[in-house]
Amino acid sequence: MTPPPAVRWIYAFADRPRPHEEAVRAFWAAVTGSTLSPARGERGEFVTFLPPGGADPSFKHQTVTDGPGGAHVDLCVEDLPALVRHAQEAGAATLCEEPGLSVLRSPAGLDFCVVPWAGERTPPPVIADERLDQVCLDIGPAAHERELAFWAELTGWRPVLTGQPEFHRLRPPPGLPVRFLVQRLDDEQPARAHLDLAVLRPAEARARHEALGARFVAEGKEWIVMRDPAGSLYCLTDRDPHVPTGGEAAAGGACGRSGC
Fold first, then answer.
1. Are 29 and 21 in contact, with CB atoms under 8 Å apart?
2. Mean pLDDT of all residues in the chain?
3. Is the torsion defined by CA of 2, 90, 260, 198 positive or negative?
4. Per the database record, which ranges form the Glyoxalase-like domain (predicted)?
5. Crossing angle, helix 80-90 and helix 141-155, to 10 degrees?
6. 151 in helix, strand or coil?
7. Count of CB atoms within 10 A of residue 179's CB?
8. DSSP labels for 200-211?
């Protein structure tokens, strides 16, 4: 298989049920220090979180009508048809296509989109010593190896084992705002995805998020599990947010302090 077209930018999406639309948009705007774009879509289901300082956005919200929601990504490329073909050869199924958008599904059942790159270059800044910079793919044991290989093949990014054996990080090139972590779950469950924030001081970050409307769920080895106002899970992870995404290679290969 020929190398995939380069992924030039990534958008992380918080997919949340409509009854919590207003509260969840206000919460994530406050967490990321962003302002909200005008709503788009037939039912106003899409908004973009616009970062301060003239940086390019990399985070959006989509209101969903079915299920509890979760997270997905848009991969931005210069040659959309070429990446779609590559994804299909790697094992993805195409769900729908329209001008400027292809919706696909990974072998384990995770939906993602491929869209044209619009020239984004400048990642959002760190806010309150936090950065939303990672989408974690939560995969059951039977599908884990195949799914990890799929995302590595799709992006061309090398999977790196972290300090926790259940986590592999796909190392992106420098300059991209979002990366992938692939987690092997302990038991068989449907594949899902959640958002991770790198935080400098986890206890302080937890208090800040609770003040903004989040709820504490559990504390892991080096992460804190939270629920946003829609009840969706996300994690505060003990990683340095000031190290740019993809910058670990320049820092001697360290993967950060946390697997999650």
1. no
2. 93
3. positive
4. 20-115, 134-237
5. 150
6. helix
7. 21
8. SSHHHHHHHHHH
- Please classify residue 122 by burial: count the beta carbons closer than 10 Å to its beta carbon, then call 0-12 exposed, 13-18 middle and 19+ buried: middle
Helix (H) or strand (E) holding 82: helix 80-90
Residues 103-128: tens digit of each pLDDT: 999 999 999 999 999 999 999 999 99
**Angle subtended at Cα 116 by Cα 47 and Cα 154, rounded to the nearest 5 degrees:** 105
pLDDT tens column, 202-254: 999 999 999 999 999 999 889 999 999 999 999 999 999 999 887 554 333 32
What digits encode the pLDDT tens for the residues 185-211? 999 999 999 999 999 999 999 999 999
Instruction: Identify whether the C-beta of residue 237 lies closer than 8 Å to the C-beta of residue 195.
Output: no
Task: Let me know: does 245 contact 179? Beta carbons within 8 Å.
Answer: yes
Cβ contacts of 58 within 8 Å, gap of 6 or more = 9, 10, 11, 12, 51, 120, 123, 124, 177, 178
Give the neighbor-by-neighbor strand order of the sheet with 70-77.
35-36, 46-50, 59-64, 7-17, 70-77, 111-116, 101-105, 93-98
* Token pair belonging to 131: 């950065």
For the beta sheet containing 130-139, the strands, ordered from the edge strand earlier in sequence to the opposite edge, are 158-161, 167-171, 179-184, 130-139, 192-199, 233-238, 223-227, 215-219
In whole angstroms, what is the distance from residue 91 CA to residue 113 CA?
Answer: 15
